[in-house]
Design goal:
By secondary structure, the chain is of the alpha/beta class. The protein has five helices and six strands; from the N terminus they run H-E-E-H-E-H-E-H-E-E-H.
Length: about 200
Amino acid sequence: MNTAVHRAQELNAFISIAAPAAIGEGPRVAVKDLVDVAGCVTTGGGRVFPLVPAARDAPLIARLRDAGCCFVGKTNLDEFAYGALGANEHFGDMHHPHARDRIAGGSSGGSAIAVAVGAADWAIGTDTGGSIRIPAGLCGVVGFKPTLGTIDRTGVVLLSETLDTVGALAPDVRTAARAVEQMSGRDRGLPTEAPALTGM
């Protein structure tokens, strides 16, 4: 097993891990366990859903497959995304990647940890009132909550119909922006360099 993935497991970042043979050559993406991935159980971080694998990918996952991404595993979260500490009584509390005695933040704590330790190139999170941004800030990664409606939420377990958005956690801003482009299907590519400032 990849050393970084093993480290992430020790920190309770993952609820389930993809078989090594299933991980291809493309960008390695960790998926918050609110999002359906075909063949994987979606738990929502709880124990009430039936343990039946999803029959199909959420549309955002299908877009990422088409873009060549591969999926490392389903990440841990506060139960049903209701919390900001990275605490889960069913699958274990998430531990800070740089100081195990500190909180990782939530609810997308597992996604933040997976990126921080290098177990994934970037990760999918969801955000109602800080669930991407809080763990990103605490774990030292970039968290991007896009505008409501930017990314299709079909196949995603929601906490709030009017507030929840799907977004990205990544090691840098460019990767986060690219991830949101790919998940949204609005992939226009990013400029290779910033335009020169004028009139200053």
